[in-house]
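Why do we bother with a discrete structure alphabet at all? Because it lets us treat a fold like text: something you can write down, compare, and reason about line by line. To make this less abstract, here is a complete entry for Acyl-CoA dehydrogenase. Read it the way you would read a sentence in a foreign language you are learning: slowly, and without expecting to understand everything at once.
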Amino acid sequence: MDLVNALLAATPPKPLPSPRTTEVVAAELRTLHTAGALDLPLPGAGRTAARWAALAAFGRRDLALARLAEGHTDAVAILAEAGHSPAPGALYGVWAAKSGGTGAVLADGALTGTVRFCSGLSTLERALVAAGDRLVEVDLADPRVRRHPDAWQAVGMDASDSGDVVFDGVPGTLVGPPGWYVGRPGFALGGAGVAAVWLGGAAGVLDGVLAYLRERGDADEHQLAHVGALHTAVSGTDAVLSQAASAEVDALVAGTCRAAAERTAVEVLERALKVTGPTPACRDRRFAQRVADLPVYVRQHHAERDLATLGRTVLGAA
């Protein structure tokens, strides 16, 4: 199945109303959830390609929306792998960052500590929170969950409703035994699913480049050369993900998918403004938002550090 090229052959997804705001993204997420559009096939159950195609489509439409949609679908897949059912009607997220020495701690069945990079602060009803080697499901209506949206100062992904969360003795339900969250087979599948969102985001930037050139109608040879390179980069990563979706996704495969999608995103961002110049980045809010969102989201990939981990895995597998 051709994840992104199949999408590019059709009409691009309908964009969100502009200017995009946290409220607009939250309302659309809720609409998608109610309509069943977030009920994706579970990963590794024979329809992984369809799941990743849906995630790529969310990313191509809007990365802030895709961030929340991917988090919810990942949480549902994690719960299913643990033999749990999600709370009816609830929107979920997965909050597992341990940035700068922060992170949640579980003691006597309750969570304490600060977790950064939590998306969906005011939108979600429940979250799966990583605390040491445990995963805990939390009801976000608990008043001891304190949200700090002011911690998020980025222009990119500004509508993803992100920030810090402080847990002050919040009870929760354990999901899986110690070490289960990162040791389960679905961990690699989830990481590769994020790569599909990144790829969709890169395709969205390419959509903007093509729309700009078609409107002008006078692309020169240098611009066309960049477009050819952009198409090649997106198509190549699409092929990597398509092949991976039909295989057993382990750490090596997932790392390859993520590295390929990150490389494509970086190349798309580098070339896009060489094609368009500053005009759409300054005068087209949607295009400007796309090129601001993608570098923030794709930095979930830790660049050379993750490449070194991948290289170590490749060397060990040889």
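What the structure line is telling us, in plain words: The chain has two domains: 1-88+182-318, 92-181. The chain has a mean pLDDT of 94.
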